[in-house]
Design brief:
Blueprint lengths: L1 H19 L10 H8 L3 H6 L5 H13 L3 H17 L5 H10 L19
Helix pairs in contact: 2-4
């Protein structure tokens, strides 16, 4: 029962984010792209365990798409928004995720990150 409620909460959260998130007008990265790229990571972010290959694939795809400062700032803002809205997220898991997927991002994934300073 808890798993079903958790999945329904995640689906509702993702739908809310897609419907209400600011979309990049001039950039290649949108919150919808961030959400779809990171959805496979939800189980790792809330329960730990091994990182799913589909999660790393999404992270690498998102990293490849975020080639400009506005794109990286948009991705940061969307991830920050998601980290504050996903119930039960383990911030240590979120912080370690890029490294576990072989991606080096120059900022910490955290609710405290100032995305406007991301280059």
């Amino acid at each position: 029962m808890a798993i079903v409620v958790g999945k329904m909460t995640l689906i509702a959260l993702l739908c809310f984010m897609v419907a209400s998130a600011p979309y990049g007008v001039n950039g290649a990265v949108t919150c919808q792209m961030v959400v779809s790229s990171l959805t496979p990571c939800a189980s790792y972010l809330t329960r730990g365990g091994p990182v799913p290959a589909s999660c790393c694939s999404g992270i690498n795809s998102l990293y490849s798409a975020a080639t400009t400062t506005p794109d990286r700032q948009m991705a940061c803002k969307c991830m920050k928004q998601a980290s504050g809205m996903l119930p039960g997220i383990r911030l240590d898991a979120a912080t370690s995720l890029p490294g576990k997927c072989g991606v080096n991002i120059p900022y910490k994934i955290s609710p405290d990150t100032d995305c406007n300073k991301v280059q």
